[in-house]
UniProtKB/TrEMBL annotation, chain B:
It is found in: Cytoplasm, Cytoskeleton, Cilium axoneme. Pfam families: Radial_spoke. It comes from Ictidomys tridecemlineatus (Thirteen-lined ground squirrel). Its main location: cytoplasm. This is Radial spoke head component 4A. GO terms for cellular component: 9+2 motile cilium; extracellular region; radial spoke head 1; radial spoke head 2; radial spoke head 3. The keyword Cytoplasm applies. One of its GO terms (biological process) is maintenance of ciliary planar beating movement pattern. Residues 170-200, 361-383 have a biased composition (Acidic residues). Residues 170-216, 360-384 are annotated as: Disordered. Keywords: Cell projection, Cilium, Cytoplasm, Cytoskeleton.
Length: 277, 512
């Protein structure tokens, strides 16, 4: 959610129950402004909170002019001091795929797990058990990246793409209409398109290239299952909750410009989803 | 004469035109009014335009026949429903009644608890909480309720559930349908009669394990009654009492709630009931696992003279300790042994108080004795399941993979003197408890599932059961060959021939 409309956004996202305490809210308001100034970001988003055993991580992201460019992620333990996180790479993703369980809350905590690796010594091939240590910070980075890639969403029309390449915030976006708000196809993943090229020409003919340049939620696996769409307060608020990453809440007030998403959860994927539907 | 001329002129001016329905008199007066109101420059030069404008403005649009009310209906509907919450209800009668109401109010102070929970970062937003507060008030007014509490909110796919935990006044319980039990007895009798008639069919070994009866109302897992609604303003629905079988199976499955109480639960092992039963079972599990209070807040009631008889399974009643002095917030945060569970643990059987399924009525015991003589099975003694007694400190809760079952936090590090202690369950994510030393409250907001580090694996179906005792009637054999058949027939004919010979000889003998 945008740091500028933090209070309203928190109020709108409160249906999921997890919010922020008043002192965290107050410190966020001030510190995010300072972050924006210091790092010279175009927009600062409060991404959410990952609950650890000992402490919680508060995560913020900074965006530059091009909305789809890789975002910079910052984390803080107390909402006042923010530290930049390194970007996620494939190596880190592979390493952290083996780590299970909750976050501890201590960024320097190391997870250990043993892997059996094949070591070549001359002509013989040994299988050795290697203890791999993964730092919690790395795990944090890759989890945030996974969540972003999987479930960060944005309503259709909120961004538009210029012919030069970068995508910008659409200032004429007035919000989705009620009938559009209930359909999964009017929400897009907030990342570079992956599926778009695989669409048939017939499907692409209906798309508007300046608005429809991201993947929509319709084709998420499992179909019609990984998102829960609800209207709250009658029809005044549409809330999407991800079932794959429980804790991700996206809210949008139809016909207004208010929208945003926040993740408050343990940072673990819900792999039991197919059994639970 | 002058006057008549004036009147004639005016009548002429007032004549309505056949084409447009206007008359010159009115039109000229409108034009002059407009000019005097607006005072344009060089009015005389633009008089024709002004006249045209007045004529155009005369035509009013027809009423819009399009009705655009349809889209926003649900929003208005819920607003209407919630508006009724805000109505005060009949306050006829003197202030006496008002005082009575306030004295006996079973309504909890939801806003106060919500304030404390907000310090912890948990909560539904002030407006929503207030509406829930009013909905609870409506609940207490329509039902005879002794005590009521806002239990929490369970999220679902299509809709969410707002849950209220309620204790009815003494004797005011709606009686459970006793007809079900009578019907079961009748069914059993009918089945027995059938079995006696059809003696020819081989009888199956299989006896279903005896159904464990549910606990009585107000005890154990059914201590409280739960009401749910989808949104504040909608009518409250009472959830049925929970059966032990439902809890046992709810422990083995993991399903999302859809938000409709009558939705079926398709799962393996098959869940006996629909979503309302599953919801009730999960609520029971969550309450048993995560409802905690500071040590000393509750104490066991003093039982005079009954100390000799120890109720199997431990004591199950407690009351508030009037001498509770409160615990320091720092102590509550630092040590988990300052918190205790005040809801009974649910045994693996599915009940809080152990039920021995081997106890039977006299009739059934006689039958059992007969059957036992024939087959000699079923050990009489099943070990009693024991769970941790009531009011055990939560420091005794099992750890999950080196992770403590609870996380404690101070609500604010910046102002510790007014901070409160917040407890967060790691076993049931979404369960919170707070205490400021004297007051405490529990709350749940989440999807309603337990936390497990490993993925869920559905239980394997049991091996195929050997149904019938094998005997010559049902053992498979090959069909006899042609030669075997011939040999058999020859042997038969031989015996028949021999019998006939015997008869003939007998007859011969008789004749003789």
């Amino acid at each position: 959610m945008d740091a500028e409309s933090l209070l309203l956004s928190l109020e709108l996202a409160s249906g999921s129950g997890q919010g922020l305490s008043p002192d965290r809210r107050a410190s966020l308001l001030t510190s995010l402004l300072l972050v924006k100034r210091d790092y010279r970001y175009d927009r600062v988003l409060f991404w959410g909170r990952i609950l650890g055993i000992v402490a919680d991580y508060y995560i913020a992201q900074g965006l530059s002019e091009d909305q789809l460019a890789p975002r910079k992620t910052l984390y803080s333990l107390n909402c006042t001091d923010w530290s930049l996180l390194p970007p996620a790479t494939e190596e880190t993703m592979a390493q952290t795929a083996m780590v299970k369980g909750r976050f501890m809350g201590d960024p320097s905590h190391e997870y250990e797990h043993t892997e059996i690796q094949k070591v070549n010594e001359g002509e013989k091939i040994f299988e050795e058990e290697v203890v791999v240590q993964v730092k919690e910070e790395t795990r944090l980075v890759s989890i945030i990246d996974q969540i972003d890639q999987a479930v960060a969403i944005i309503p259709r029309g909120a961004l538009f793409k210029t012919p030069f390449g970068p995508s910008n915030v659409n200032r004429t976006f007035e919000g989705l209409s009620l009938s559009e708000a209930k359909k999964l196809s009017s929400y897009f993943h907030f990342r570079e398109a992956i599926d778009l090229k695989n669409k048939t020409l017939l499907e692409k003919a209906d798309l508007d290239p300046s608005l429809d340049f991201m993947d929509s939620l319709e084709h998420d696996i499992p179909k019609a299952g990984s998102w829960s769409i609800q209207m709250e307060r009658g029809n005044a608020l549409v809330v999407l909750r991800s079932l794959l990453w429980p804790g991700l809440t996206f809210y949008h007030a139809p016909r207004t410009k208010n929208y945003g998403y926040i993740y408050v959860g343990t940072g673990e994927k819900n792999l039991d989803l197919p059994f639970m539907l | 004469v002058l006057e008549i001329a004036i009147q004639n002129a005016k009548a002429y001016l007032l004549r309505t035109s056949s084409k447009s329905g206007l008359n010159l008199y009115d039109h000229l007066s409108n034009v002059l009014t407009k000019i005097l109101d607006e005072r344009p420059e060089n009015a005389v030069d633009i008089i024709e335009n002004i006249s045209q404008d007045v004529k155009m403005a005369h035509f009013s649009k027809k009423l819009d026949t399009l009705q655009n009310e349809n889209e926003l209906l649900p929003m208005y509907e819920i607003a209407e429903m919630q508006k009724t919450l805000f109505l005060q209800g009949n306050l006829e009668g003197a202030d006496q009644e008002l005082e009575d109401e306030i004295a006996e109010s079973s309504l909890p102070n939801v806003m106060e608890s919500a304030f404390y929970f907000e310090q912890a970062g948990v909560g539904l937003g002030t407006d929503e909480t207030y509406r829930i507060f009013l909905a609870l008030k409506q609940l207490t007014e329509t039902h005879p309720i002794q005590r009521c509490r806002f239990w929490g909110k369970i999220l679902g796919i299509e809709r969410n559930y707002i849950v209220a935990e309620v204790e009815f006044r003494e004797g005011e319980d709606e009686e459970e349908v006793e007809e079900e039990e009578v019907a079961e007895e009748r069914d059993n009798e009918a089945i027995e009669a059938d079995e006696e008639e059809e003696d020819e069919l081989p009888k199956a070994f299989y006896k279903p394990p005896p159904t464990i009866p549910k606990e009585e109302n107000r005890t154990g897992a059914n201590k409280y009654v739960y009401f749910v609604c989808n949104e504040p303003g909608r009518p409250w629905v009472k959830l049925p009492s929970v059966m032990p079988a439902q809890i046992v199976i709810a422990r083995k499955i993991k399903k999302f709630f859809t938000g409709r109480l009558d939705a079926p639960i398709l799962s393996y092992p098959p869940f006996p009931g629909n979503e309302s039963n599953y919801l009730r079972a999960q609520i029971a599990r969550i309450s048993a696992g995560t409802h905690v209070s500071p040590l000393g807040f509750f104490q066991f009631g003093e039982e005079e003279g009954e100390e000799e008889e120890e109720v199997e399974g431990g004591r199950d009643s407690f009351e508030e300790n009037p001498d509770f002095e409160g615990i320091q917030v720092m102590d509550l945060v630092e040590s988990l042994s300052n918190w205790v569970h005040h809801v009974q643990h649910i045994l693996p059987q599915g009940r809080c108080n152990w039920f021995n399924p081997v106890q039977k009525d006299e009739e059934e015991e006689e039958e059992e004795d007969e059957e036992k003589e024939e087959k000699g099975e079923d050990p009489d003694y099943i070990e009693q399941e024991v769970g941790p007694p009531l009011l055990t400190p939560i420091s005794e809760d099992l750890e999950i993979q080196n992770m403590p079952a609870w996380t404690t936090r101070l609500s604010s590090n910046l102002i510790p003197q007014y901070a409160i202690a917040v407890l967060r369950s790691n076993l049931w994510p979404g369960a919170y408890a707070f205490s400021n030393g004297k007051k405490f409250e529990n709350f749940y907001i989440g999807w309603g599932h337990k936390y497990s580090v490993d993925n869920y694996t559905p239980p394997v179906p049991p091996p195929v059961y050997q149904e019938y005792p094998s005997g010559p009637e049902i053992t498979e054999m090959d069909d006899p060959d042609v030669e075997e058949e011939k040999a058999f027939r020859a042997a038969q004919e031989a015996t028949v021939f021999a019998a006939e010979e015997n008869e003939e000889t007998e007859e011969d003998e008789d004749e003789d």
